[in-house]
Amino acid sequence: MSPTPLIIIVLSSILTCSLLGATALHDHGDASTDFQALRCLKIHLSTSAGFLPSWKIDGSLQKFCTWSGVTCSKRQTSRVVALDLESLYLDGQMPPCIANLTLLTRIHLPNNQLRGPIPTELGQLNMLRYLNLSSNNLSGMIPSTLSSCSQFRVIDLGSNSFSGEIPPNLSQCSNMQQLKLDHNRLIGGIPEGLGILRNLSVLHLAGNTLTEYGYGSKISTEGDVYSYGVIILEMLTGKRPTDELFKDGLSLYKFVEDSFPEKIGEILDPRMIIPYYGNRDEEEAGSSSDQENHQIAAGIMGCITALAKLGLLCAAETPKDRPAMQDVYADAITIKEEFSALQG
């Protein structure tokens, strides 16, 4: 028997994915369904160098559990439970057929070039616990259907171009532990329901245009404190959380934390590392003793170190580890007064 022409296989995959993606699934599928869904993903997601050579497309059911980035269940033969495809320069839109991997518990696709909206069909994945699509080029509104994934523990959609408001029904995800929506184009307020999620320990919303901040709920001040901390770290280092430097586990927070306090001067924005002697004119500064100059420089560095400490405290990952807003204000005033005193 002659090999099946590739064009027929490709067209078959497209049609299969389109039909399956357009309707809600009422069963848990099987190995064949998972195989078709993976082939559909390969067609829709590509790179200039070719996408995942181990993902073979031919006329037979492959052992796709050995494909790179694919993890299958140990209990149910040939059923996909996880996709781990980080930093592979994947380009394209996520197709609805991903929802045909009905036993997925984990989708990890950060640091790629995915674009367009998240398919609403993702809400059909009732087993999904972890979704990380951060640092891509995704856009559109965050689908409200994600709230249907009742098992969610982690959602990370940070550093994309999502717009619109945060779906209020995300507060229905009672098992949510981490919600990261920072550095998008979100507007409006923070849904009050998020403030009563007792398992929610990490909430990242900085870098958006959120205005109402939960109408006075506890989540309001925690969001303000976190955003203020990130701003401090950005101003001190001259870097943003989305800079290319921050990858492979290195974040702006860790970048500062690893240098604090002894090496804090090494990571400052170069524009800040200049001789500074307050408002003294050149003649007066030139006549000052070396000891006085040293004391002034040490005082300035002390203020910078205190500010870095405040930024780290405010940007702590867990809300309970962040200071109260009134304490942040008091510390900021103290640092300002100490710095003003150095200027004479």
From TrEMBL:
<feature type="signal peptide">
    <location>
        <begin position="1"/>
        <end position="24"/>
    </location>
</feature>
<keyword id="KW-1133">Transmembrane helix</keyword>
<keyword id="KW-0325">Glycoprotein</keyword>
<dbReference type="Pfam" id="PF08263">
    <property type="entry name" value="LRRNT_2"/>
</dbReference>
<dbReference type="InterPro" id="IPR032675">
    <property type="entry name" value="LRR_dom_sf"/>
</dbReference>
<dbReference type="GO" id="GO:0016020">
    <property type="term" value="C:membrane"/>
</dbReference>
<protein>
    <recommendedName>
        <fullName>Leucine-rich repeat-containing N-terminal plant-type domain-containing protein</fullName>
    </recommendedName>
</protein>
<dbReference type="Pfam" id="PF13855">
    <property type="entry name" value="LRR_8"/>
</dbReference>
<keyword id="KW-0677">Repeat</keyword>
<dbReference type="Pfam" id="PF00560">
    <property type="entry name" value="LRR_1"/>
</dbReference>
<keyword id="KW-0472">Membrane</keyword>
<dbReference type="InterPro" id="IPR013210">
    <property type="entry name" value="LRR_N_plant-typ"/>
</dbReference>
<feature type="domain" description="Leucine-rich repeat-containing N-terminal plant-type">
    <location>
        <begin position="32"/>
        <end position="73"/>
    </location>
</feature>
<keyword id="KW-0732">Signal</keyword>
<dbReference type="InterPro" id="IPR011009">
    <property type="entry name" value="Kinase-like_dom_sf"/>
</dbReference>
<keyword id="KW-0433">Leucine-rich repeat</keyword>
<dbReference type="InterPro" id="IPR001611">
    <property type="entry name" value="Leu-rich_rpt"/>
</dbReference>
<dbReference type="InterPro" id="IPR050994">
    <property type="entry name" value="At_inactive_RLKs"/>
</dbReference>
<keyword id="KW-0812">Transmembrane</keyword>
